[in-house]
Protein backbone atom coordinates (compact mmCIF):
# COMPACT_ATOMS: atom_id res chain seq x y z
CA UNK A 1 0.00 0.00 0.00
CA UNK A 2 1.33 3.46 -0.87
CA UNK A 3 0.99 6.43 1.40
CA UNK A 4 -0.80 9.51 0.13
CA UNK A 5 1.16 12.65 -0.73
CA UNK A 6 -0.42 14.39 2.26
CA UNK A 7 0.68 11.62 4.62
CA UNK A 8 4.24 11.75 3.32
CA UNK A 9 4.25 15.54 3.53
CA UNK A 10 3.02 15.48 7.13
CA UNK A 11 5.45 12.80 8.28
CA UNK A 12 8.33 14.55 6.55
CA UNK A 13 7.38 17.80 8.28
CA UNK A 14 7.94 16.11 11.65
CA UNK A 15 11.66 16.02 10.83
CA UNK A 16 11.63 19.73 11.73
CA UNK A 17 11.23 21.23 15.21
CA UNK A 18 8.78 23.90 14.03
CA UNK A 19 6.25 21.33 12.88
CA UNK A 20 6.81 19.04 15.87
CA UNK A 21 5.95 22.00 18.10
CA UNK A 22 2.89 22.94 16.03
CA UNK A 23 1.49 19.42 15.80
CA UNK A 24 2.42 18.18 19.26
CA UNK A 25 3.76 14.99 17.66
CA UNK A 26 7.14 13.44 16.85
CA UNK A 27 8.51 10.33 15.18
CA UNK A 28 10.59 7.42 16.47
CA UNK A 29 12.19 4.76 14.28
CA UNK A 30 13.67 1.32 14.83
CA UNK A 31 12.51 -2.24 15.44
CA UNK A 32 13.74 -2.59 19.03
CA UNK A 33 12.33 0.74 20.20
CA UNK A 34 9.05 0.03 18.37
CA UNK A 35 8.52 -3.14 20.42
CA UNK A 36 9.38 -1.28 23.61
CA UNK A 37 6.96 1.54 22.74
CA UNK A 38 4.13 -0.93 22.28
CA UNK A 39 4.42 -1.97 25.92
CA UNK A 40 5.16 1.38 27.64
CA UNK A 41 2.78 3.90 29.19
CA UNK A 42 4.79 7.13 28.95
CA UNK A 43 3.88 8.21 25.41
CA UNK A 44 0.65 7.74 23.52
CA UNK A 45 1.14 6.24 20.05
CA UNK A 46 -0.79 8.10 17.35
CA UNK A 47 0.07 5.86 14.39
CA UNK A 48 2.44 3.15 13.21
CA UNK A 49 3.94 2.89 9.71
CA UNK A 50 5.77 -0.29 8.74
CA UNK A 51 6.70 -2.69 5.99
CA UNK A 52 4.11 -5.46 5.49
CA UNK A 53 6.54 -8.21 6.55
CA UNK A 54 7.30 -6.37 9.82
CA UNK A 55 3.59 -6.07 10.58
CA UNK A 56 3.09 -9.75 9.85
CA UNK A 57 6.05 -10.75 12.05
CA UNK A 58 4.72 -8.69 14.96
CA UNK A 59 0.97 -9.23 14.51
CA UNK A 60 0.49 -10.55 18.04
CA UNK A 61 1.95 -7.37 19.61
CA UNK A 62 -0.23 -5.27 17.29
CA UNK A 63 -3.53 -7.03 18.01
CA UNK A 64 -6.21 -4.95 19.71
CA UNK A 65 -4.34 -1.63 19.66
CA UNK A 66 -6.33 1.60 19.32
CA UNK A 67 -4.23 3.47 16.78
CA UNK A 68 -3.97 3.30 13.01
CA UNK A 69 -1.45 0.90 11.45
CA UNK A 70 -0.27 1.60 7.91
CA UNK A 71 1.42 -0.96 5.70
CA UNK A 72 4.03 0.85 3.59
CA UNK A 73 6.25 0.14 0.63
CA UNK A 74 10.02 0.26 0.99
CA UNK A 75 10.07 3.45 -1.09
CA UNK A 76 7.58 5.18 1.20
CA UNK A 77 9.54 4.16 4.30
CA UNK A 78 12.61 5.78 2.75
CA UNK A 79 10.63 8.96 2.09
CA UNK A 80 9.41 9.37 5.65
CA UNK A 81 12.56 8.20 7.45
CA UNK A 82 15.13 10.50 9.08
CA UNK A 83 17.79 7.77 8.79
CA UNK A 84 20.27 7.09 5.98
CA UNK A 85 19.02 3.52 5.93
CA UNK A 86 15.29 3.47 6.63
CA UNK A 87 13.98 1.28 9.42
CA UNK A 88 11.11 -1.12 8.59
CA UNK A 89 8.96 0.59 11.24
CA UNK A 90 8.23 4.18 12.28
CA UNK A 91 5.87 5.42 14.98
CA UNK A 92 4.23 8.79 15.49
CA UNK A 93 3.95 9.71 19.17
CA UNK A 94 2.11 12.48 20.93
CA UNK A 95 4.55 14.89 22.51
CA UNK A 96 5.06 15.02 26.24
CA UNK A 97 6.68 18.25 27.37
CA UNK A 98 7.92 17.42 30.86
CA UNK A 99 8.72 14.35 32.89
CA UNK A 100 7.32 13.32 36.25
CA UNK A 101 10.42 14.47 38.12
CA UNK A 102 11.24 14.55 41.79
CA UNK A 103 14.72 15.72 42.79
CA UNK A 104 14.37 14.95 46.49
CA UNK A 105 16.83 12.36 47.80
CA UNK A 106 18.20 11.74 44.33
CA UNK A 107 21.29 12.33 42.27
CA UNK A 108 20.24 14.38 39.24
CA UNK A 109 21.86 15.62 36.05
CA UNK A 110 21.40 19.26 35.08
CA UNK A 111 22.24 20.43 31.54
CA UNK A 112 22.69 24.00 30.38
CA UNK A 113 22.49 24.84 26.68
CA UNK A 114 23.58 21.43 25.35
CA UNK A 115 23.27 21.77 21.58
CA UNK A 116 24.60 18.56 20.05
CA UNK A 117 21.80 15.96 19.71
CA UNK A 118 24.29 13.10 19.91
CA UNK A 119 25.69 14.40 23.19
CA UNK A 120 22.23 14.83 24.66
CA UNK A 121 21.11 11.36 23.61
CA UNK A 122 24.30 9.87 25.04
CA UNK A 123 23.72 11.64 28.36
CA UNK A 124 20.16 10.28 28.54
CA UNK A 125 21.46 6.77 27.83
CA UNK A 126 24.19 7.23 30.46
CA UNK A 127 21.65 8.36 33.05
CA UNK A 128 19.59 5.25 32.32
CA UNK A 129 22.65 2.99 32.67
CA UNK A 130 23.56 4.43 36.07
CA UNK A 131 20.00 4.58 37.38
CA UNK A 132 19.73 8.36 37.43
CA UNK A 133 16.04 9.12 37.00
CA UNK A 134 15.99 12.85 36.28
CA UNK A 135 17.64 15.23 33.84
CA UNK A 136 16.79 18.92 34.17
CA UNK A 137 17.56 21.01 31.10
CA UNK A 138 17.79 24.73 30.45
CA UNK A 139 15.15 25.94 28.05
CA UNK A 140 17.78 26.48 25.32
CA UNK A 141 19.00 22.87 25.40
CA UNK A 142 18.28 20.88 22.23
CA UNK A 143 14.78 19.38 22.33
CA UNK A 144 14.24 15.83 23.54
CA UNK A 145 12.11 14.92 20.51
CA UNK A 146 14.84 15.75 17.97
CA UNK A 147 15.19 12.47 16.00
CA UNK A 148 18.97 12.43 16.50
CA UNK A 149 18.54 12.75 20.27
CA UNK A 150 16.07 9.86 20.31
CA UNK A 151 18.32 7.66 18.18
CA UNK A 152 21.37 8.36 20.36
CA UNK A 153 19.39 7.61 23.54
CA UNK A 154 18.70 4.06 22.27
CA UNK A 155 15.30 3.98 23.95
CA UNK A 156 16.48 5.41 27.27
CA UNK A 157 14.24 8.46 26.81
CA UNK A 158 11.40 6.15 27.88
CA UNK A 159 12.99 5.51 31.29
CA UNK A 160 14.59 8.85 32.18
CA UNK A 161 12.51 11.90 33.09
CA UNK A 162 13.61 14.93 31.06
CA UNK A 163 12.30 18.33 32.16
CA UNK A 164 12.92 21.79 30.71
CA UNK A 165 13.12 24.51 33.35
CA UNK A 166 14.43 28.00 34.00
CA UNK A 167 17.67 26.78 35.55
CA UNK A 168 18.44 29.84 37.64
CA UNK A 169 14.99 29.78 39.25
CA UNK A 170 14.96 25.99 39.58
CA UNK A 171 18.34 25.77 41.30
CA UNK A 172 17.49 28.69 43.56
CA UNK A 173 14.26 26.96 44.56
CA UNK A 174 16.21 23.81 45.47
CA UNK A 175 19.17 25.63 47.02
CA UNK A 176 19.52 23.06 49.82
CA UNK A 177 20.59 20.44 47.28
CA UNK A 178 24.35 20.78 46.58
CA UNK A 179 25.43 21.59 43.01
CA UNK A 180 28.55 20.00 41.55
CA UNK A 181 29.66 21.84 38.41
CA UNK A 182 31.84 20.20 35.76
CA UNK A 183 34.66 22.62 34.88
CA UNK A 184 38.23 22.41 33.59
CA UNK A 185 40.04 23.58 36.74
CA UNK A 186 38.07 22.30 39.72
CA UNK A 187 38.69 19.76 42.46
CA UNK A 188 39.65 16.26 41.38
CA UNK A 189 36.28 14.57 40.78
CA UNK A 190 37.71 11.19 41.85
CA UNK A 191 38.78 12.40 45.28
CA UNK A 192 35.35 13.57 46.41
CA UNK A 193 32.75 11.59 48.32
CA UNK A 194 29.38 12.52 46.84
CA UNK A 195 26.08 12.71 48.76
CA UNK A 196 23.01 10.74 47.74
CA UNK A 197 21.23 13.99 46.92
CA UNK A 198 22.85 16.36 44.42
CA UNK A 199 22.74 18.16 41.09
CA UNK A 200 25.53 17.40 38.60
CA UNK A 201 25.76 20.39 36.25
CA UNK A 202 27.19 20.10 32.74
CA UNK A 203 27.36 23.08 30.42
CA UNK A 204 27.44 23.97 26.75
CA UNK A 205 29.92 22.07 24.58
CA UNK A 206 31.96 25.17 23.71
CA UNK A 207 31.30 27.68 26.48
CA UNK A 208 30.63 25.54 29.52
CA UNK A 209 28.28 26.80 32.22
CA UNK A 210 27.10 30.41 32.14
CA UNK A 211 28.21 33.09 34.59
CA UNK A 212 24.67 33.25 35.99
CA UNK A 213 24.70 29.57 36.91
CA UNK A 214 28.28 29.66 38.17
CA UNK A 215 27.39 32.59 40.45
CA UNK A 216 25.08 30.26 42.41
CA UNK A 217 26.62 28.24 45.27
CA UNK A 218 28.46 25.28 43.72
CA UNK A 219 31.35 22.88 44.11
CA UNK A 220 33.57 22.89 41.03
CA UNK A 221 34.89 19.48 39.95
CA UNK A 222 37.12 18.29 37.12
CA UNK A 223 38.04 14.97 35.56
CA UNK A 224 41.83 14.65 35.97
CA UNK A 225 43.81 15.07 32.75
CA UNK A 226 46.84 12.93 31.89
CA UNK A 227 47.31 13.63 28.18
CA UNK A 228 47.15 16.64 25.88
CA UNK A 229 43.52 16.87 24.70
CA UNK A 230 41.97 20.29 25.36
CA UNK A 231 38.69 18.93 26.68
CA UNK A 232 36.17 16.08 26.70
CA UNK A 233 32.82 16.35 24.99
CA UNK A 234 29.76 16.70 27.19
CA UNK A 235 28.54 13.14 26.65
CA UNK A 236 31.86 11.53 27.64
CA UNK A 237 32.33 13.86 30.62
CA UNK A 238 28.84 13.03 31.88
CA UNK A 239 29.54 9.29 31.55
CA UNK A 240 32.77 9.47 33.55
CA UNK A 241 31.23 11.63 36.28
CA UNK A 242 28.11 9.47 36.58
CA UNK A 243 30.31 6.41 37.01
CA UNK A 244 32.13 8.18 39.85
CA UNK A 245 28.84 9.18 41.51
CA UNK A 246 27.83 5.53 41.71
CA UNK A 247 31.17 4.26 43.13
Radius of gyration: 20 Å
- The overall strand count is 10
- Level-2 CATH architecture of the largest domain: 3-Layer(aba) Sandwich
Report the top-level CATH class of the largest domain.
Answer: Alpha Beta
CATH topology of the largest domain: Alpha/beta knot
Pairing-aware structural class of the strands and helices? alpha/beta
Q: How many domains, in number, for the residues?
A: 2
Work out the strand percent.
15-25%
User: Which series of helices and strands comes N to C?
Assistant: HHEHEHHEHEEHEHEHEEHEH
Instruction: Give the CA-based shape.
Output: elongated
Tell me the name of the CATH homologous superfamily of the largest domain. Answer: SPOUT methyltransferase, trefoil knot domain
Determine the number of helices (DSSP H or I, runs of at least 4 residues). Answer: 11
User: What gap, in angstroms, lies between the N and C termini?
Assistant: 53 Å
Strands of the widest sheet, in order across it, are: 7-6-5-9-8-10
Describe, in plain words, how this protein is organized in 3D.
- With 247 residues, the chain is α/β, with parallel strands linked by helices.
- The protein has 2 domains: 5-94, 60s Ribosomal Protein L30, Chain: A (2-Layer Sandwich); 107-245, 3-Layer(aba) Sandwich (Alpha/beta knot), CATH 3.40.1280.
- The chain has 11 helices and 10 strands.
- The strands form 2 sheets. A 6-stranded parallel β-sheet has the order 7-6-5-9-8-10.
- α7 (117-129) links the parallel β5 and β6 (134-138).
- The chain is elongated and about 60 Å long.
- The N and C termini lie far apart (53 Å).
- 33% of the residues are buried.
